[in-house]
Design goal:
CATH architecture of the domain at 50-121: 2-Layer Sandwich
Structural class: alpha+beta
Distance between the termini: 55 Å
Order of helices and strands: HEHEEE
Shape: elongated
Radius of gyration: 31 Å
CATH topology of the domain at 50-121: Dodecin subunit-like
Keywords: Signal
Strand content: 25-35%
Largest sheet: 4 strands, antiparallel
CATH class of the domain at 50-121: Alpha Beta
Number of helices: 2
């Protein structure tokens, strides 16, 4: 009677056993054959760190002081837009760069090369 009870208790474990069979896969020749069996959901994500540049330019203004204020506003807008697009905290660093101003036809414009580093999911 005890043997019957032990087999009866182990029956659910035996019923859930799974097997995988592979038939008719040629293993000869020059072609490389890779067989991969995975169980469950793939939770590993692969990321790549990317550094890039953008151009930031403030609105033109008659006074150099106002042009600098416009550049600072453009820089703040660029940072907030980049952070708003940030999904899963992928932005590593943001820098508006060094402001350079020029005056053409009685109007001053300030611009810079902004740099950013982000983490991009590749898989």
């Amino acid at each position: 009677m005890k043997k019957f009870a032990v087999i009866f208790l182990m029956l659910p474990f035996l019923a859930q056993a799974q097997s995988v069979g592979i038939k008719d896969i040629p293993a000869d020749g020059e072609a490389e054959t890779t067989i991969e069996i995975k169980k469950g959901k793939n939770t590993q994500k692969k990321f790549e760190v990317v550094t890039n540049e953008d151009e930031i330019e403030g609105d033109a203004a008659p006074l150099l002081k106002d042009a600098r204020v416009n550049w600072k506003k453009a820089c703040a807008d660029w940072k907030s837009e980049t952070k708003a697009l940030n999904k899963e905290n992928q932005v590593i660093s943001l820098s508006c760069g060094k402001m350079e101003c020029a005056t053409v036809s009685m109007e001053s414009t300030c611009q810079s090369k902004a740099k950013y580093t982000v983490k991009v999911q590749v898989q």
